[in-house]
Each structure stands twice: as C-alpha cells, then as structure tokens.
Design brief:
GO terms for molecular function: phosphatidylinositol phosphate binding. By secondary structure, this protein is α+β, with helices and mostly antiparallel strands. It has one domain: Phox-like domain (PX Domain). Helix content is 48%, strand content 15%. The chain contains 10 helices and 3 strands, in the order E-E-E-H-H-H-H-H-H-H-H-H-H. It has helices spanning 51-64, 85-102, 106-109, 112-119, 124-131, 139-150, 155-162, 164-172, 174-178, 182-190, and strands spanning 8-19, 25-35, 44-50. Strands 1-2-3 form a 3-stranded antiparallel β-sheet, sandwiched between helices. Strand 2 and strand 3 form a beta hairpin. The longest helix is centred in the middle third of the chain and has 18 residues, at 85-102. The radius of gyration is 18 Å and the shape is globular. The protein starts with 7 loop residues before the first strand and ends in an 8-residue tail after the last helix.
Length: 198
Amino acid sequence: IMPLQEFVTVLVRDPRTQKEDSWHSYIDYEIFIHTNSMCFTRKTSCVRRRFREFVWLRQRLQSNAVLIQLPELPSKTPFFNMNNPHHVDHRRQGLQEFLEKIVQDALLLSDSRLHLFLQTQLSPEDMEACVSGQTKYSVADAIHEFASLNRRFPIEDEERKKGKNDAESDSESSSSRLRPSDDSISCGCKASPASEES
C-alpha cells in the first residue's frame, strides 16, 4: 500500500479587530492547521495571532536558519488601514502565503517556536522561555495544554445541546478523529482567550 501523502493545510482567516485600550486597536487573524504530518503534535488546531507576532516568528526562524532565505511577510505599510477590507484581506493573504511556504521547509518545521506559534496562544516571551527550557512545561506540554484549554469553553454547552452522541463517538472512532467535522474545528477557534468579551 502506498503511504499516505503528507499534507499540511494552513489557513489564515477571520481577521478581527481587538481593542488594546481606548486609543489602540489591532487586527488578529485565526491560524487554522489541519495536517497528517508527523512533525505536528496536534493534527488540527486554531489560534489567533497578530501581525507583530508574525514579524517576531520570522526573525526567530531566520536567526536559527541562517542559510535559508525565508519568505517575506506582507510589507508593513504606513498606509495600512484597519477599516479597509481590501488592505486587511491583502495582508491576510500575505500571511497565509508566508506560513504555507514555511511549513513546506523541513528545517523550519524542526523549530519548536514555529509549533508553539501555530498551536498555542503563548506570547512571544513565553514561547522563547519554553524553547530555551525556562518553563516547567515542554513544547509538547504547551501544545497539549492549549488543546485541552480549548475544549473547556462554553462552546461545549452548545455541543451538548446538539446531541451528546457526537462527543462520545469522537473518543471511540479513530476515523472521526482523522477528518474532524467543521464543528469540532471551529469550536477551538471561538474559544481563543482573545475573544472579544472584554
């Protein structure tokens, strides 16, 4: 039998404006990963990241992989207008293309920072600390912990209303785990700590 072709699907989607304080806002984007690659601890995940964190990631990856020419991020233009859907979508596309190229590179995929960036909501400082062994938790711990955090949000109540059998069949049958329904995917995303409750 032919081995399954490895794939990594990366989507950058759902730009949302977040308020930092009464003067400052920023846009963050949902990063959705679906993969069967051995490199990834989790096969599906959803996190939210802002442009500045992509910039941090690129700098860190570049400093570790000196000989690789990393793909460019969409340019940080002084005229970027958060209220202009065209600007926002252009940046979103650029961020997606950046990540699509990154996850095709085996050397970059070996960088733990990339995995923490894609599969946890840790801040850049916490990602650095984790990678350099200054935290009690390992990279894999952080990713698993984030996965379990994501399942404990109010979304679960909605799941229960829809019918319990979904949730139960999920833990038993492996086939449902390989190809999660859109529901199970999106529930992780809405549960991100950066949701607009404040």
